Automatic annotation (TrEMBL):
Residues 1-22 form the signal peptide. This is Vacuolar protein sorting-associated protein 62. The keyword Signal applies. Keywords: Signal. InterPro entries: Vps62. Pfam families: Vps62 (PF06101). It comes from Alectoria fallacina.
């Protein structure tokens, strides 16, 4: 090698060394981990058994906007941002009474059972192919206490048959969830949502696949149970103990893995804001305050039926609110509900 080549090489190495020393140090590993989904959120994520005869499978969250239009008091909102997407859905909060009376109403007559209500049946791997049906929301309370919400979305809810007389609690849109509470990365308790409330168990007592707790989804209603079999279903819209006159059925039909079609977010409870763990995930939709389905049809609507004029027996009810309304900053594993005590069960019984 010529002297000039050696000189050039020495200059290049010196320049490279100087550049490396001047470049800011990378963020320490522990600090960088705060921007990633905690490993345990996936390790202990629930798996869901859908009922063998299920007709209404998990659905793509964004696709719901394609098949609905925003209404208030059964009238389409004028001048809303159209088309609605998961990136602008929160714009509907500007309408009505702080947005809470907005309903994403089906553009189709749901009594004709349009195909989009059926959702996507998970394949042999447990994936809802082509559909993102889950929002996983992580709330870090500090001091090692973390709640992970696994929010499941379905395009339609079939509530069952009351007293073997009439179908009840049919509505467009359905949000159900599990919440796993962690202490220092160890799962301690799990919440199972059921028709506006639910029940809690210690993690250790639950049925599992590997480390992942098992959830049984009610046929059509998608209420979450810790065991399979037959379960009492509260009469829609009435805060009464289960009376055994309306039934949920669960069993091992199709296994669904919610991790395979999910958006992942962190939740800042003090600011009430969401941050996506992946910049490609939409976040604005999480701020939406309205419902994800039709408003309950009045009795003047020929589609609506009640038993003996009792409103609690309505065949068609209003759609549900979304994750924003699911008490994401709970003190206990159970949400706060009037008259209920958070009883965390330590064994599986029917």
């Amino acid at each position: 090698m010529s002297p000039s080549s050696n000189s050039l090489k020495s200059f290049s190495m010196a320049f490279l060394l100087q550049a490396v020393l001047a470049y800011p140090s990378p963020t320490p590993l522990l600090e960088r981990q705060t921007t990633a989904v905690p490993d345990y959120v996936s390790t202990y994520a629930p798996v869901v058994w859908l009922y063998p005869g299920e007709n209404y499978f998990p659905s793509d969250i964004g696709a719901q906007l394609v098949h609905t239009k925003p209404e208030i008091n059964f009238t389409v909102i004028e001048g809303y941002e159209n088309p609605l997407t998961l990136n602008n859905l929160d714009s509907l909060n500007a309408y009505g009474t702080t947005g809470t009376d907005v309903y994403l109403t089906s553009v189709d007559d749901i009594t004709t059972n349009p195909a989009w209500l059926n959702g996507v049946k998970p394949d042999s791997t447990g994936k809802t192919d082509g559909a993102t049906s889950v929002a996983i929301i992580v709330n870090d309370h500090g001091d090692g206490l973390v709640d992970a919400f696994y929010m499941y979305f379905y395009a339609f809810n079939w509530g069952g048959v009351l007293l073997d007389i009439q179908e009840v609690d049919l509505h467009v849109g359905d949000w159900e969830h599990n919440m796993v509470r962690f202490q220092n990365g160890t799962p301690t308790q799990v919440w199972f949502s059921q028709h506006g409330f639910g029940e809690a168990f210690t993690y250790d007592c639950l049925e599992k696949q590997g480390a992942r707790p098992v959830t049984y989804s009610g046929n059509g209603s998608h209420a979450n149970y810790a065991i399979n079999g037959t379960h009492d279903h509260t009469i829609p819209n009435v805060n009464l103990p289960d009376a055994g006159i309306l039934t949920d059925y669960t069993d091992q039909g199709t296994l669904w893995d919610p991790l395979l079609g999910a958006y992942f977010y962190s939740y800042d409870a003090s600011a009430k804001t969401y941050s996506a763990y992946d910049s490609s995930y939409p976040t604005a939709w999480l701020e939406y305050l309205g419902t994800w389905g039709d408003e309950q049809y009045p009795n003047s609507d020929p589609r609506q039926h009640e038993i003996l004029g009792i409103s609690a027996t309505a065949e068609f009810t209003s759609g549900p609110t979304g994750p924003e309304d699911k008490q994401l900053n709970r003190t206990e594993v159970c949400p706060v509900a009037s008259g209920y005590v958070c009883d965390v069960r330590t064994e599986l019984t029917s």
